[in-house]
């Protein structure tokens, strides 16, 4: 099987090569290219059986059509989310889509808590201040989490890990999900409105779907306690950015931590420090002292990259031998 690996970063190649060299995967050949998969580049997949793609790429209808014309039979998403893939088109053309669910839920949940702690204790500001020999504390007053209420939206693999971390911090944990997770016996499930209205820390861990698109908007922000802290490590479009910005301006939030944001496609994972940015979302968010933004790095831990490369290559092996891996993604 020949796989064309799009959007290669040095760390991707390092971890995939190390995994490949363990010998089980000798029937798989991987070519690494750094361009992202999209309408202009899909044609590069000519002659390959499979492509390997990531969250920051466009696998819409036209890309799937081109991949089909190129003879591609398999799309290996080296990530958990697949909201950027037109699954209906893939099914129509008989292309199998596989992903890596739950490669390290703790990596993302721990990053969510790191963002929360950074935002509420202003460590991102303190770090810069001390480097400039400014040892003053004005403006750095934080809040504690112990005894406060954490509201988890979506208690799947990552949300469960975050719920456990919050529990360990001595927080009361409440949650909203379409399906209750019975393993989380310390979590009280409530309606979305109740979770929003009672939480001091809200952390988003549901997938981006038609139903969750702009889940956080002016109406739901109005339901939140004043001085709430909001964390999003899931997908940018769960939050309507304009409404969030208005809410921050109105002083509704103690702090906001974002690993994902709308308009991140195109800039995420790229060094644009010498470029003139074509959109202003990040700049506007960063203008607020109580907002901390990272660049979709929740997954970016050694353990996660090891698991991603192993599962992706196992997915390819399963496909080659006609076995179900359980990691196939379908429309229903
Ligand atoms: P999961 O599938 O294990 O859990 C998702 C949970 O959300 C499920 O319990 C599901 O019932 C619930 N859910 C679905 N629709 C809902 C709705 N309308 N309202 C409330 N809950 C709903 O997924 P997992 O592995 O926990 O990942 C969650 C999300 O995290 C992914 O969809 C992805 O967007 C994001 N993610 C972010 C990463 C990062 O680097 N920042 C890395 C990996 C995933």
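Sequence proposed for the structure above (332 residues):
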């Amino acid at each position: 099987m020949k796989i064309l690996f799009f959007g290669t970063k040095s760390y991707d190649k390092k971890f995939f090569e190390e995994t490949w060299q363990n010998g089980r995967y000798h029937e798989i050949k991987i070519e690494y290219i750094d361009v992202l998969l999209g309408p202009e580049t899909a044609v590069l997949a000519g002659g390959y059986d499979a492509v390997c793609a990531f969250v920051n790429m466009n696998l819409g209808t036209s890309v799937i059509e081109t991949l089909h014309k190129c003879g591609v039979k398999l799309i290996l998403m080296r990530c958990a989310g697949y909201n950027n893939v037109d699954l209906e088109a893939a099914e129509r053309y008989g292309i199998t889509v596989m992903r890596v669910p739950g490669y390290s839920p703790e990596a993302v949940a721990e990053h969510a808590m790191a963002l929360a702690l950074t935002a509420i204790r202003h460590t991102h500001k303190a770090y810069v201040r001390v480097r400039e020999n400014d040892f003053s504390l004005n403006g750095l007053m934080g809040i504690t989490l112990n005894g406060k209420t954490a509201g988890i939206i979506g208690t799947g693999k990552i949300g469960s890990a975050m719920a456990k971390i919050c529990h360990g911090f001595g927080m009361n944990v409440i949650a909203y999900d379409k399906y209750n997770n019975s393993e989380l016996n310390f979590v009280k499930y409530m309606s979305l409105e109740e979770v929003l209205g009672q939480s001091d820390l809200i952390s988003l861990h549901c997938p981006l779907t038609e139903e969750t698109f702009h889940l956080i908007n002016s109406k739901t922000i109005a339901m939140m306690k004043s001085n709430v802290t909001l964390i999003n490590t899931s997908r940018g479009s769960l939050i309507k950015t304009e409404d969030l910005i208005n809410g921050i301006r109105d002083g509704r939030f103690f702090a906001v931590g974002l690993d994902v944001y709308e308009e991140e496609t195109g800039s995420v994972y790229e060094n644009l420090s010498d470029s003139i940015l074509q959109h202003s979302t990040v700049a506007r968010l960063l203008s607020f002292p109580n907002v901390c933004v990272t660049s979709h790095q929740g997954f970016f831990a050694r353990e996660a990259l090891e698991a991603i490369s192993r599962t992706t290559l196992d997915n390819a092996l399963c496909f080659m031998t006609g076995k179900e891996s359980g990691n196939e993604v379908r429309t229903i």
